[in-house]
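Q: I'm writing up a methods section and want to include an example of the input and output format. Could you take the sequence below and give the corresponding predicted structure tokens, formatted cleanly so I can copy it straight into the document?
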Amino acid sequence: MTLYLTDTMSPEEIKLAKESGVVCAVKLYPAGATTNSQDGVTDLFGKCLPVLEEMMKQNMPLLMSNRTDPAWKYSKRHEDNKFRFTCNFCDKVVTGSVYRVKLHLVGGYPDVTSCPNCPEPVKEEIRAFIYLLQQQSHLNTLFSIGIPFFKEGYSHTTTVFQYSKERYPVCYIQSFLRSSDGDPFSRRAIVSAVTSGNKRFFLGTDSAPHDRRKKECSCGCAGIFNAFVALSVYTKVFEEAGAVDKLEAFTSFNGPDFYGLPRNKTKVKLIRSPWKVPESVPYASGEIVPMFAGETLEWLPTLV
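A: Here is the clean output for your methods example:
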């Protein structure tokens, strides 16, 4: 379980959360940034510094998106020319914006000289940041298409699967990624990263079970209920990448190891057995439409 950080949270709450043995982290939502974030943080260091200090004492992570460009750490901008940077690893002078510094560090671009000395962990950090930029920039594409309707050729970043049903508002989430094969940070690159066995990557789902009526309306809520099918979909991704042997660590080990939590002892068995996703999941006040509603998936998860 995680806590929702607010301007009024006290350090004492962090102590109690740690002592509970149930709360493992605190989530930062800037006020107004997403659904139900109206009570989020308005001034992180001005109003939440005592809480952050207590979190450090309790070794409790703060969950947030990294919006600080890491390229500044690995280069120096020239004082006499803000469009010239010197790489910390090879002393190469890169001309242009700081974005070109990132391309220089990552390497593989024909119009930017690659850094021969950039450590692999730094490359991974830069790639992850560029991925975040990709998500943010493609929100513009999302709004140009028109909410709540979508066109074929856009994918959910959550599962890196293309879900091409036209005019399907249930699919609306706030992070989309182009499927362009020419883009090194497209879906294909993300699949390569998460199936590589790198411990920095672990399972996550959007898991937003909004009522159907709140999705299929003129101003639908962002989020998709995909926890229902996540294991089946991830297994398919890893199978196609020839990396099924790395699936268990991705789904069950890397996450708890990162947060310093014990690994779950319960086991799940995945059977190659086609099953049909329900068109909807009923609950007391209505129904929720899951991702891939009505579709047939190849892998069936069962408890051992």
